[in-house]
Amino acid sequence: MNPEQLLDCERVAIQVAIGAGAMMRTARQAGRLEISTKDFSKDLVTETDKQVERSVFDRIRQHFPNHRFIGEESRFEGIGGEKGLTSEPTWIIDPIDGTMNFVHNNPHTCVSIALAVGGQPVVGVVYGPFLDKLYTARSGAGARCNGQPISARKNCRQLSDALVIAEPGIFKDPDDRRRDLANINAIVWKSHGLRCNGSAALQLCCLAEGSADALWHWGIHVWDYAAGGLILTEAGGVVLDTQGGPVDWCRRRVIGASSLELGQELSATLVEHLEFERD
Ligand code: LIP
């Protein structure tokens, strides 16, 4: 895609994200979220998640009818059911990232919209309607929040100087729970401390704006981290695999960091590694 095409895709994604945020606000004000669970008791979905995803798909498809679509609620139906990312232009949508927060009237929830070409995100938009924060990025054009350039804290190169984001209590499997608590215990005493806000997309944007310095995540899906991952790298940060190598957008694991040195130290400090079926 040429720069003009990328700009057009970002413009559409921003318009659609703002519309999705309005749907989230309306649903919360109405106070009827129609909540159900998916894989286990903490894996929530609301009718608003489904309605927002349908709206985002329909509105983007009006502009780009030949593109492919992946969404949290429709999974891979939008691309014929097969998992994974191909080289074709593919929109990757999390209609409400941080659904648990959305249900609890917590503001750390957002719509996440990414466009991937050649298997890599090239446009990312994360909109937190209750935070009034619109994070945007295009490949090679930097990252912004509400139109203003943002930058990761690139001079934070060691764990002992870093504020780290973790997210305890998200696993169904008791062994995964024990193993990630071991990681939390290992990191908390070697860093400036841990923070958690419950939305992977917004957590990656925190690193991009320099309000935190590193994170690790297992079990999330491509729609949770594709847009936020591009926003972070365009802000000068890095996204890595938890083993320290290049990120795999479908491997369901990621390290984000303000610098490569910090990301690699975080990877080396994790004492347990979890595995999840690929997207
Ligand atoms: C959520 C992520 C969160 C993760 C949760 C869940 P959802 O996405 O943003 O960081 O820990 O398990 O995957 O399901 O709210 O879109």
TrEMBL record:
Its EC number is 3.1.3.25. It is an enzyme of class 3 (hydrolase). Pathway: Polyol metabolism; myo-inositol biosynthesis; myo-inositol from D-glucose 6-phosphate: step 2/2. Keywords: Hydrolase, Magnesium, Metal-binding. It comes from the Eukaryota. GO terms for molecular function: inositol monophosphate 1-phosphatase activity; metal ion binding. Coiled coil: none annotated. Mg(2+) binds at residues 72, 94, 96-97, 224. It catalyses: a myo-inositol phosphate + H2O = myo-inositol + phosphate. GO terms for biological process: inositol biosynthetic process; phosphatidylinositol phosphate biosynthetic process; signal transduction. Its cofactor is Mg(2+). InterPro entries: IMPase, Inositol_monoP_metal-BS, Inositol_monophosphatase-like, Inositol_monophosphatase_CS. Belongs to the inositol monophosphatase superfamily. This is Inositol-1-monophosphatase. It comes from Medioppia subpectinata.
